[in-house]
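Thread: Modeling a multi-component assembly for a lab meeting

Hi all, long-time lurker, first post. My supervisor asked me to bring a structural picture of a complex we are working on to next week's group meeting, and I have zero experience with this. I have the sequence lines for every component (826 residues in total). Could someone generate the structure of the whole assembly? Inputs are pasted exactly as I received them:
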Amino acid sequence: MSPHFTLDEARALDMHDPLRAFRERFILPEEIVYLDGNSLGALPARSAARLREAVENEWGRGLIRSWNLHDWIGAPQRAGALIAPLIGAKASEVVVADSTSQNLFKLIVSAIRAAGGRGAVLTEAGNFPTDLYIAEGAVGLFGDCTLKVVPTDDLPAAIDDDVAVLVLTHVHYKTGARHDMAALTAAAQAKGALVIWDLSHSAGAIAVDLNGCNADMAIGCGYKYLNGGPGAPAFLFVAERHQLHLSPATTGWMGHAAPFQFRDDYQPAPGISRFLCGTPPVIALAALEESLGIFAEVDQVLLADKSALMCDLLIALVEERCAGFGFELITPRNPAARGSHVSFAHDEAHAICQALIARGVIGDFRAPDVLRFGCTPLYCGFEDIWRAVDTLQMVMATRAWDSPEHQLRQRVT
Amino acid sequence: MSPHFTLDEARALDMHDPLRAFRERFILPEEIVYLDGNSLGALPARSAARLREAVENEWGRGLIRSWNLHDWIGAPQRAGALIAPLIGAKASEVVVADSTSQNLFKLIVSAIRAAGGRGAVLTEAGNFPTDLYIAEGAVGLFGDCTLKVVPTDDLPAAIDDDVAVLVLTHVHYKTGARHDMAALTAAAQAKGALVIWDLSHSAGAIAVDLNGCNADMAIGCGYKYLNGGPGAPAFLFVAERHQLHLSPATTGWMGHAAPFQFRDDYQPAPGISRFLCGTPPVIALAALEESLGIFAEVDQVLLADKSALMCDLLIALVEERCAGFGFELITPRNPAARGSHVSFAHDEAHAICQALIARGVIGDFRAPDVLRFGCTPLYCGFEDIWRAVDTLQMVMATRAWDSPEHQLRQRVT
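Re: Modeling a multi-component assembly
Sure thing. I ran the full set together rather than chain by chain. Output:
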């Protein structure tokens, strides 16, 4: 990478980007640089149209008839089948339902019940909060079960014969560090434990190969790289070999073998559908299904390659142009060891983030001191990266992040 | 009621209906009579517009900024506050989240944990299936807990000192029979049990007074009489006096006291928000919140009165014009003992329902033999009722529900 990487060079990369055409599928306000697709994916143009159709025609005109007429009832499985190729799974192993939190609860409870007396759920300190909270809540249901939260480096040693299930987020929401899915899965399985992978910061941006890693279970978010819209329903994966002997406690009617026979007794569906619970969120599913349709046209290898190159460029540009401003890279430099966002620690991260947003560069802040930039390969470009760092340099060089009051105080004291 | 109630008389009732203007707030296809709002509420015109705004402007242009800019994060509580007056609750006692199934799971688990060793969850046979299934799933988490499913008439006697929680649907989905909420709540509480009321077939159509009945907990559906759209998020109510000592096991980040401090340990929110779980479904909540706004203008007494009169008219017309066709009314005649739908048992209910739908009269069928008509007081009119029964009479008189094959077989055998 050139030490003086220019805007023209960034534009040249965009021009030769084989995924460039996908940017046109998204509504992106012209005045902003959006580097927060890892928190909320952008709106696909077709999703807006699809939602109008789902609301105004299917709900408004079709009314109750649309459950059959437009196969609303099949949406959880259809959306799951569209996610499957993005995560190395079979269509019959993925459904869309509820939230990531609820899905994680289902799988942890299932895993504990299948573990035959093993008494621990293991996870890492600093995992995404809802994963930790849900694990704590699930464990609390079982008198003989404990939650073990250990530092990342201690994970391998902490996998012992008492661990029922290891719960890990594939790509860390803050640092962007990526776990070695194959190695940790094998290590846990060697001790007789199951593993649940949270793919919220992976699916749709980097290569994920669940079955290639012999993964047991996974969950993930619909509103980040999958662009399903704010609060979109989430997905879950259960390897075929586990489906029949796992039973989530949230046995709602959509998980029943025959939900419309209205029987009094629960009989779980024979496959992945047993992990459904309540009535599918039709409108939200329509948005997600439409956005997932885009991925069917995307070469996953190109997507992962572009993600790596964008992150590389961002790191190089910040280190070149913002040297001396106090940024500490906390994301791994090795593309295989990270996801699709890049984070820097900085004492003034919050104020800097606000100053960037005020200038149209949208990244985000994570407490206490992390400035995070998501490089969404599907619709972001290399010019976006260049502009973001150009603005960051300006903000830092002019201390634009600093309030006039604070600057004055610095000078007079 | 006249024994020869005419179309003109129905129209006169509509003309004098003080709620008539609300019909114009809904998109109702002209060619149909919609008597299935108890299964899926109609589309409010403003909801369609609100969804376009939420999708195209808030998500599309605002992107991640809309969490604050448009207060997406406050939607569960805002929607809850709009539902509260419809069910006799305080705003601080209701939130919108997840599905009815998931919400019921949260409350049953909370109730069992708070019950201090009581070993039974009591419900009635023939309750809505997902309520039974969820109760079965929740009970299965506790080694010392059993699910008691008894016939309706045996409920009072079955409430004993071992019951942790009584789970009942206020208005039965099939028969429309309404439980005496005050009496059953008092009976359960006298034995030291809690009660969870499922208001799915009540809220938004008939009078519900949770606090007037000293109710403990309730759940309900967003997509029936509340018109939130297919698969809309659901609501839950927990009386203020119980909130601090109940803990659902699904401890997601939105139930945390400080979700955006990203701490590792779970600390429940001090009030009703502890019953939230994952990220709010923003788009779906926007639709529900908009439709709930309509109810703020509706006199609840007028709504309940109209519901009763519509159901009375439907019963009278069917008994007058469809006598001898084999319909058996299974809904109570006393308005105070029923909800807002009327059901008839008939051996050919399924075929009759299909014949009605083919002629633009949309009610629904519930296995094995129930024909169900929802009288939604907010947007249905008396002419709708008249037309539905007029069509039903024609279908029955001409045996239009019967297939030509079947008719032929009847004649030759």
